[in-house]
Amino acid sequence: MISNSTPSPQADLLLRDYRPQPRLAVPETQVTKPHVPVIDAHNHLSLLDINWMERPLSELLDWLDEADVRVFVDLDGGWGEELLNRHLDKFKSAAPERFIHYGGVDWGQWPRHGNRFGEWAAARLRDQVSRGAQGLKIWKNLGLRLRDHEDKLVSVDDPRLDPIWATAGELGIPVTIHIADPVAFFDPLDATNERWEELHAHPDWHFPSPPYPSFQSIVEGLARVVLRHPETLFIGAHVGCYAENLAWVGDLLDRAPNFNVDIAARIAELGRQPYTARRFFLKYSDRILFGTDLPPDPAMYRIHYRFLETDDEYFAYALEWPPPQGRWMIYGLYLPEDVLHKVYYQNAQRILGLT
What we know:
The chain has 355 residues and is an alpha/beta fold.
């Protein structure tokens, strides 16, 4: 019989109010400390929810100690030399063994230097390294928004930038490069987009093509840069900017021994493909760096440790609800001890030249 009764108000439940409680009876492992002390190879000190420039250094060190993070890699210098200098003065000078700071490129100077911009930026990088920078951070404005002195979009593999990459190789510093966001950020913002909520919360993160270049053209440009500069160590931020397709990332790792990846802000992607991700970690254990790209809250770090160390099933990848990147849960990878050592600190130690 077909009911003609009026639907209950709950039938019109809004997605933002939907908070299902899992009823699975599965193990919940508490990992309060990592298997070994870690290097957070991708993070920030002033561009996240907490601005540590305005808080006591002792408070930050207490949080890092609680999470057993021995070295914190700060990428904020990628947003300007003035910020780099401030962070060197506050953090590096006070606790040099705990902090690594990256420099960056002042793209706003391109109109002034024209086609010689690459040479000028390479010279500035030398100066930043002489003052204490230990890496170079490149952000996604390159490839998406950056325009040259003739108002033309600059591609990731623009040959005019080759002096920058070559100089990083000569100086022996890594280039952490983030040139594309999740693939869904480039898709139409309709009912099929798995990042619908995230993109509505952050509409400036949406890069549909057109007017923006396609996702694939951007990551292929990254691949060409990496292959063109074999003497330069590159760290592809956020699992090589393509965590949804580990086969593509693995192919570039196979072709480019100078390419590495960090896992910052991507355990949500990795944890929903646990079999593929575990095989990826085992095969490329020498090329993967631990990183979070999140405020250094000990509770946040514990989620990462649980993901890497346990075989727990179906748990939240974030502290808040709804989760920020997508409405799904993740599964632990249960990595072997030798792989944990490499991912947690040995790979970053080698690439950053730490003792």
